[in-house]
Every structure is written in structure tokens, then in C-alpha cells.
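Long-time lurker, first post. I've been practising inverse folding by hand and with some scripts of my own, and I keep getting stuck on stretches where the C-alpha cells seem ambiguous. Below is the full C-alpha cell string for one chain I'm working on. Before anyone asks, I'm not after the true native sequence, just a reasonable design that respects the backbone. If someone could post their per-position residues I'd love to compare against what I wrote down in my notebook.
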């Protein structure tokens, strides 16, 4: 028993010391950081095993190698991690084309983002037995990847985007069919979280001019969340969270509500955020070789990107940047050299958080 208590004390002590380095951490996506971060998706997108399939077997014919089902997204342990692994490659290439490993990344895109592979991925998702596959977490990341390709000013980007378009069209249709049927939101801190699944999809709809999808998401978001008050963030995190149910809901409502509606809603939903001294304890990871426990690093990054977005858009919440910085400082130093359990996916979350730290937003709607 004493040994267990001593071990627990060491873990807690290490966590506290780690959190104390907040002021030393970099919260800017620079070329130096990009050169480090790109090694994570480069290592995983073409690594076929270990792999968690998550598919429903309709017959013995479905017992195939993952790469036969998913000729693009067969790496990084699972489909959705492969999807945001590719997003990481494209995002870093777009922002830092001079990266040391740029040619290697481009070669991977050339090999895998082909016409035939895009059609095969779309065919898999088109089957009725797979209509709930990756709903809605993987769906959201696929749309985010497509969005990134379509804003990338590169001769090959349009070709890659076109090759993915059959799959994107299926995913958009899945959203259109599913959201009217989802009567109640899913509020967990993992993959099926409704607010997360709608946020990136809303970005895609707005950026690509898909008015019908945008309006559906906005209607459903209002139906799900408009009446919410006093979100119990003190209940967070659950043991395996990589998404904050409270802050992810704020991120979605910030997207869909004009400022005149959003600010009163936010005051009712989490009034404590207006306190200039507001603090939020980071999610602590006891074992980064455990694929579930390391989720808490992802929680810290996803909390950060929502807090940065709020601080950037509304000066009265600028103090929340410091809270986001603390979350980044705890988890960011562990990325490079991390075990595969975290390394196969956490880089994408870090990139999203780092980009969110930069104030690139337009002024909020009036």
C-alpha cells in the first residue's frame, strides 16, 4: 500500500512540476515546430498495424486487411486518426512548404490521395451497414481535411480535393440524413460528442457555401443547446475525455450564434468564465503508454483551442488565453518522442490548438 501511495505522490508531483513550466512553453506554430510536428503523421499514416477497425462485419467477405477497406485511411491505428493525420500533413505543408520533410509528405499524398482510392473509400461509407461508421467524429475530420485542401494554393491540392470529393459527398449526405433523426445531443467527452461533430462540419459548410448543411447544423445546434445553463465543468474531466463537453459546446455556439445572442447565452451557460481570475485545472495523464489515459492530453489541446477562439473574438474574455496557455504547457512538451498510443493522433490536436492561438478570426457577428 505504501508503495502505491508513493507512486501516486510521484505522479501528482510530476504533474504539478510540469504545469509550472507554462511560461516557458511555445504557443506559436513556427517552422521549427512544424518540422517536429510533421514527423508524427509521417510516422503513422502509412503504418498499417496496430489498427483498430471499428467496422461491422456483414459477412465473411468483410474480413479483409484494413487497407482493402480503407486504401487512404488505413494507418494511424484507426480511420479517424488517419483522417486527421492527413489533415496535419496538408495543414503543415500549406503553412510551411519549406519544411525539411515536405517532399516526403508530398510523396505520401501522391501515393494515397488517388482517384481510385477515393472511390473505394466512398463505396465503403455508402453501404447501409456502414452508415454509422465514424459518426460524427471521423466525419468532421474528413470535412476538415477537404476544407484544408480546398484553401491550399498548390497545383496538386485541387487534384487531391477532387479525388476525395466522392467520399466528402457521402459524408455530407450522412449529416443531412442523421441530424434530423438525432433528437438529443450526445454530451460525452469522446468521439460521439455532438458539439464537436457539428463544429468542423459547420466550418466546412460556411467555407464551401453549402447553405443547406449550414442551416441544418445551426437549427440543430439551437435545438440541442440554446436552453443550456450552468454547465457542470467541475464534473470534468472524466477519465478518458479528450473533448470538454462544456467548452466544445461553447465552441459550436460561438460559431452559430451572432454576438448579440451568443454573449447572453454564454453568461447563462458558464458565467464563471467572465471572472478575470478564472482558472481551470489541466487534465493530468498518469500513463502516456495507455491509449485511453493519454486522452487527457487531447483534452488539454481541445480545451485550449476553444478558449483561444473565445479570447480572440471577445476582448472581455481575453484573460482566458492564459488558461489555454497553461493547458498547452502541460501537454505540448510530451508530443515528440511520445509512445504510439499518443503520437498517432495528438499532433493534430496540437496543430489545431496552435493555429487557434493566433487571432485570425473576423470580428464576431453583430
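-- Answer (accepted) --
I ran through it position by position. Result:
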Amino acid at each position: 500500500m505504501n508503495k502505491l501511495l508513493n507512486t501516486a505522490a510521484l505522479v501528482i508531483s510530476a504533474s504539478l512540476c510540469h504545469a509550472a513550466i507554462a511560461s516557458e512553453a511555445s504557443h506559436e506554430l513556427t517552422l521549427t515546430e512544424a518540422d517536429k510536428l510533421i514527423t508524427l503523421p509521417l510516422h503513422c499514416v502509412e503504418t498499417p498495424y496496430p489498427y483498430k477497425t471499428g467496422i461491422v462485419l456483414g459477412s465473411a467477405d468483410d474480413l479483409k486487411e484494413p487497407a482493402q477497406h480503407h486504401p487512404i485511411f488505413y494507418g494511424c491505428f484507426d480511420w479517424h486518426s488517419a483522417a486527421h493525420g492527413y489533415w496535419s500533413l496538408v495543414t503543415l505543408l500549406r503553412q510551411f512548404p519549406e519544411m525539411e520533410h515536405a517532399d516526403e509528405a508530398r510523396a505520401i499524398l501522391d501515393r494515397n490521395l488517388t482517384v481510385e482510392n477515393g472511390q473505394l473509400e466512398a463505396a465503403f461509407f455508402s453501404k447501409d451497414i456502414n452508415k454509422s461508421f465514424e459518426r460524427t467524429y471521423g466525419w468532421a475530420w474528413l470535412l476538415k481535411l477537404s476544407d484544408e485542401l480546398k484553401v491550399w494554393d498548390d497545383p496538386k491540392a485541387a487534384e487531391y480535393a477532387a479525388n476525395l470529393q466522392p467520399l466528402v459527398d457521402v459524408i455530407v449526405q450522412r449529416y443531412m440524413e442523421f441530424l434530423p433523426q438525432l433528437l438529443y445531443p450526445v454530451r460525452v467527452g469522446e468521439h460521439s460528442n455532438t458539439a464537436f461533430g457539428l463544429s468542423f462540419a459547420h466550418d466546412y459548410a460556411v467555407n464551401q457555401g453549402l447553405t443547406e448543411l449550414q442551416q441544418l447544423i445551426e437549427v440543430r445546434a439551437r435545438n440541442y443547446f440554446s436552453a443550456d445553463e450552468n454547465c457542470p465543468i467541475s464534473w470534468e474531466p472524466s477519465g478518458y475525455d479528450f473533448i470538454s463537453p462544456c467548452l466544445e459546446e461553447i465552441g459550436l455556439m460561438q460559431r452559430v450564434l451572432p454576438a448579440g445572442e451568443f454573449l447572453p447565452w454564454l453568461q447563462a451557460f458558464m458565467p464563471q468564465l467572465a471572472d478575470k481570475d478564472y482558472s481551470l485545472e489541466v487534465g493530468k495523464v498518469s500513463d502516456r503508454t495507455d491509449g485511453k489515459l493519454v486522452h487527457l492530453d487531447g483534452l488539454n489541446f481541445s480545451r485550449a483551442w476553444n478558449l483561444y477562439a473565445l479570447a480572440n473574438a471577445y476582448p472581455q474574455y481575453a484573460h482566458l488565453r492564459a488558461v489555454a496557455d497553461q493547458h498547452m504547457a502541460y501537454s505540448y512538451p510530451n508530443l515528440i518522442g511520445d509512445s504510439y498510443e499518443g503520437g498517432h493522433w495528438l499532433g493534430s490536436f496540437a496543430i489545431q490548438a496552435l493555429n487557434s492561438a493566433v487571432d485570425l478570426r473576423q470580428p464576431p457577428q453583430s
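A couple of notes from the structure itself: Confidence is low (pLDDT under 50) at residues 1-25, 360-366. DSSP finds 17 helices and no strands in the chain. Happy to go over any region you disagree with.
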